[in-house]
Amino acid sequence: MHRTTRHLRLTDLGLETLTRCKEIVAVAQAAVRVADHLASRPKGLVQISAPKAFTRHKLHLKLLHFLKLYPEVDVQLIVSDRDIDPFREGIDLMIRITNTPPVGLIARLMLKVEYVLCATPKYLATHPPITLPHDLLKHSCLDLGEQARANHWRFSRGIELVEICVEGRYVANHSEIRLDGVLSHLGVGCVLDFVAKQAFDQGLITRVLPDWEFLANYHGGAYIIYPQGRHTAPKCRALMEHLLK
Fold this sequence. Notes:
Layout: E1 2-3, E2 8-9, H1 12-40, E3 44-50, H2 52-69, E4 73-79, H3 86-89, E5 93-98, E6 106-113, E7 115-119, H4 121-125, E8 141-142, E9 152-157, E10 160-165, H5 175-183, E11 188-192, H6 193-201, E12 206-207, E13 213-214, E14 220-226, H7 234-244
Parallel strand pairs: 3-4, 3-5, 8-11
Antiparallel strand pairs: 1-2, 5-14, 6-14, 7-11, 7-12, 9-10, 9-13
């Protein structure tokens, strides 16, 4: 560096050093930008669990579309109706149908879910009419059977609350299986709305007691549930936002 009483000026060597330093800083800044871009890009494996019927009717096609949109993300789908412990089993996201999401985990509502009562037109035409919940006592009813009081069906309409104890020839803890029983004209079944939708659209089944709300043990919504902090990974955040669209 050249110095006078009035000026400071870099020497030729100093100018060359300054130029090289600027180049090094520019390269370092570019490297940081690349690292930030890679860190924010969805990439890697996401493990997600979901109930069987929900997977088939609502989740599976969404996952296939997601995989096309994000070629650097892989998905491991665990299809199970049991409650999953995300901490013990290392699951990133899980979908659970409930009206009471678990405490200590974050839950985001994917869609509302309800059980509906249905029967085939053939069955209804050959059995007593059903206009009130108590009329079901004269019918064969297909219920879940998972709990001691699973055959205690509860209904509400305005301020009215009604509970009855139904009986039936076929008990199954799976909506698709109960729907098959209904389609075989075995009686009135409680089925998840998204499972029954296609049969309704095709006119194969009719809704029973449409003016009453059926208060099933499992209802409320399909929630995406995950541990605190797990959603911050770009791969998890991308999948979750895709499912919530």
